[in-house]
From TrEMBL:
It comes from Notothenia coriiceps. Keywords: Membrane, Transmembrane, Transmembrane helix. The gene is tmem45b. This is Transmembrane protein 45B. PANTHER family: EPIDIDYMAL MEMBRANE PROTEIN E9-RELATED, TRANSMEMBRANE PROTEIN 45B. InterPro entries: DUF716 (IPR006904), TMEM45 (IPR042127). It is found in: Membrane. Belongs to the TMEM45 family. It is a multi-pass membrane protein. GO terms for cellular component: membrane. The chain crosses the membrane at residues 40-58, 96-117, 122-141, 161-188.
Length: 224
């Protein structure tokens, strides 16, 4: 996990047109590729979150809730950076990124609440839903800003902003449906097989008790 975020940071820095570890150009007196630096900062905090999760899993000395706290912090940093990521952009571009912040900040708040409220299935599933929404919306942003085919979107048309807002609600509905179906399937599967397991266990106990009774009767008959 730590290797992944390190690779992501290195890619942001050393792509062909990347900053190559230069933050400020003294010759031109300007910042160098701040977008790449912001992306790298996001990866850094998700890397810290990954380390915290691994440490929490591997050691009982790590305080309870550190994993959720670090994940909440990583999401907050992502949203905080994205908020200043979209200034001075066309209206549709800024709006579609702002909608992303809804999923990011709600997810951050959800995981922060989980630091104090343990094993709440509603919070856990809702947090998963926000992650799915965030992931699917990233794809939507890509298709809007960089369409694979057809005409480009008019980034200043208000109707496009209205449609994208409605589209975000559809993404949310699909994420909720996916989480609901997945959790229901898992619940029914576990319930079904755990019930069979209990039946098998009860059957084994009954067989064992019958065998013991028969053995006791045989021993008594031998003594007589």
């Amino acid at each position: 996990m730590s290797n992944i975020w390190c690779i992501c940071i290195m890619v942001e820095q050393f792509v062909v047109d990347g900053p190559h570890a230069h933050l400020y150009d003294t010759a031109n007196q300007s910042w160098v590729k701040l977008m790449n630096w912001q992306h790298g900062t996001m990866y850094l905090f998700f890397g810290i979150s990954g380390i915290a999760i691994v440490a929490k899993t591997a050691s009982k000395l790590v305080p309870v809730g550190v994993d959720h706290l670090s994940l909440s912090l990583a999401l907050f940093v992502e949203g905080f950076l994205f908020y200043y990521h979209v200034h001075m952009r066309p209206p549709l571009d800024a709006h579609i990124h702002t909608l992303l912040l809804v999923a990011v900040f709600i997810g951050s708040a959800c995981f922060m609440v989980e630091v104090f409220i343990k094993d709440n299935i509603v919070l856990e599933l809702f947090g998963a839903c926000m992650f799915i929404l965030q992931g699917s919306w990233f794809y939507q942003i890509g298709f809007v800003l960089y369409p694979l085919r057809g005409p480009e979107w008019d980034l200043k048309m208000h109707d496009n902003i209205m449609f994208i807002t409605m589209c975000f609600c559809w993404h949310l509905a699909v994420a909720l449906l996916l989480v609901a179906c997945t959790s229901s399937f898992v619940w029914f599967t576990v319930k079904r097989f755990s019930g069979k397991g209990r039946d098998i266990e009860i059957g084994m106990r009954n067989t064992s008790s019958k065998t013991s009774s028969q053995k006791a009767l045989l021993e008594e008959s031998d003594e007589e």
